[in-house]
Fold Phenylalanine--tRNA ligase alpha subunit.
Amino acid sequence: MALDKAQIEQELAKALSAISQAADLDALKQIKIDFVGDKSPLAKANQALGSLEATQRAEFGKLIGQARASVNSAFELKSNDLSDKRDLVALQTEKVDVSLPVRRVLKGGLHPLTILTNEIADLFIGIGYNIAEGPELESEWLNFDALNIPADHPARTMQDTFFIEPIEAKLVLRTHTSPVQIRTMLNQKPPIYVICPGKTYRADELDATHTPVFHQVEGLVIDENITMADLKGTLDYFAKSIFGKNVQTRLRPSFFPFTEPSAEVDIFFNGRWIEWGGCGMVNEKVLIACGVDTKKYSGFAFGMGLERTLMVKHGITDMHDIVEGDVRFTQSFGVGIK
Ligand code: DAH
C-alpha cells in the first residue's frame, strides 16, 4: 500500500467526524470496527509501514501514530460521554417512587397440620427418636392381620376401609399409621424409638368432625424394661410440649387388638378432660409376629389424630376449615417458616 500524507489526514478527518456524529453506543460499536479496529484504514496504513524505507518509515510512523492516538482518544471520550448519557436516561426512566402505596403480595403459609407435624417431629427427635415412614397404600396384612386385627373385626368392613381393586391384591388405603409399627419392627432390631406421622384414610363423609383423609402420629418404643410408666411419662412430655406445661394426662382402660393392656389417653385442657388418642403396651402376639424376643424386650405404642390435636389445641370447631385450604385460615397460624 502506497502511503500518502493527504490520504492519512483524510482518513483521520473521516474517523473524527464519524465519532463525533455517533448518536449512541450501538453506532459507536460499528465506528470502532470501521475506524479504530485492526481493519480500519489507519490500522492498515500502520501495517504498511514495514515496507517503507527507514526515513519514510519514521516520518509516516509519526504521522500515523499521532492520527491513531487522536482517533483513540476521541473514541474514548465519545464512548464515556455516550455511556454517561445512557446511564442518566436509565436513572431517570427507572426511577422508583418510594411514596407510592405498596401492592400487597399474598404470601402462602405452611398448613397448620404441617406446622404441627414438624413440631411433633422436633420434640421427639429432641429425645432421641427417629422418624419412621410407610406407604399410604398398604397391604391388608400389615394394616390389620399383623396388628392382631382379625378378619371379622368391624374395622375391616367396607364401611371403614377403602379397599383397592383388584380385591385379590389385598391392598387398602391404610386406616391408621399403626402398620408402620410392624414395618419398623420387621426392619430393625430393638432398641426402637420412632414416631410415624402420616396420612390415613377411612370411608367417612366430610363433616364438622370427620374427613376421609386425615393424619395420625404413631409412636413406638421397644427396649428392655419398658413399662407403662415410660408410656405415661412420654405422653406427658408430648402433651405438655404441644398443649402447654399445665396440661395433665390421664390413662383410661380401653381395648385395641395390638396393645395389651390398652388405654385411651385424655388431656385436661381448658378446664375439661378431652380424649386425645389410644395407647398401650405392645401386644405380645404382635411382638412375636415381628420376631421380637419377648423375653428380653417389651414396648409401648400410641396413636393420635393430628386434625383432632389441632382442633383441641386451637379451638377449631369445623373440620372444613382444616381441609379446605383457605389461605386466610392458614395465615391465621402465621407463615410458619421459622
Ligand atoms: N391405630 C389406632 C386407631 O387408629 C390408634 C392407636 C391406638 C394407635 C393404640 C396405637 C395404640 O399405637 O397403641 O384408632
